[in-house]
Amino acid sequence: MKWAVVTFYFLSILHIHFRGKVRLPFMRQLFDHSSFMAPINLFMHVFSRVPSTPYFDVSQFKDLEPLQQNWQVIREEAENLLKLQKIKAAENHDDAGFNSFFKNGWKRFYLKWYNASHPSAERFCPKTYALLRNIPSVKAAMFAELPPGGKLNPHRDPFAGSLRYHLGLATPNDDRCFIEVDGQRYSWRDGQGVIFDETFIHWAINGSDGDRIILFCDIERPMRFRWAQAINRWLGRTMMTAAASPNETGDQTGGVSKIFYVSHVMGQYRRRFKAWNKNVYKLTKFGLILAVAALIIFV
After folding, report:
1. CA 189, CA 61: separation in Å to the nearest integer?
2. Which of 148, 161, 208, 229 lies 20 to 30 angstroms, CA to CA, from 13?
3. Distance of alpha carbon 18 from alpha carbon 39, whole angstroms
4. CATH homologous superfamily of domain 55-252?
5. Does position 261 have pLDDT exceeding 80, yes or no?
6. Share of residues in the chain with pLDDT > 70 (%)
7. 3-state class of 217 per DSSP?
8. pLDDT at 299 over 70
9. Where are the membrane-spanning stretches (predicted)?
């Protein structure tokens, strides 16, 4: 039984690794956070009602039309936040989902995050907040900024229960500012939306001289059966809410993000160890991974 579970888990990782045209190096994929979620993501992909393609036609998602129609209203609130310097990186290392993005200039302001509470969103962005509240398929939303020179390295998102929607608000309208999903590029334009599957390898860069502000949303992945949709909804409600991060005091911080802060502090010692001797660090890391795998398999 134990070997069957281990085999299924490994096959799930292979499914994630070979999905799409662009891949991470296999050893990196093996220990990537998307591999830890591989069995869940395999379920999502198998029972998904949408095809396994990098991009989707926005017009097929009729419930998002109010966002498209009100993009200038949404932009006005985003630009006001920008003036107030509210679109920013997490100040206390308490954003487990997007922490690695901050070092390359990316910033955010949460408008909605699954079942978490963000009173600051309603206070600063009442019109956008109201629009989002009336679209149940939008499980998470934020304003996301990528300044000139900002870059997001190639990665897969860990949870396949959603699709990603970007609505251009104040963008450079320049092909040098783009996202690439499974090798296919898209350049943001003001007032235009795009939907893609974030479990394909994707990366982004702003190579222009202008700032880029978008509305960034997680849209619940449509599933083929009601029971599969119910499972997806439950996972989002429990797992993803636990990764909630605050904009400011008074907003909810999920349990995973609280633990991440502790992990960040411990990571400072890890980085010192790595700087002392990289080879010893790699051997120690590999040894610990083997030890954990042995415990899982043989105990």
Report:
1. 19
2. 229
3. 14
4. B-lactam Antibiotic, Isopenicillin N Synthase; Chain (2.60.120.330)
5. no
6. 89
7. strand
8. no
9. 280-298
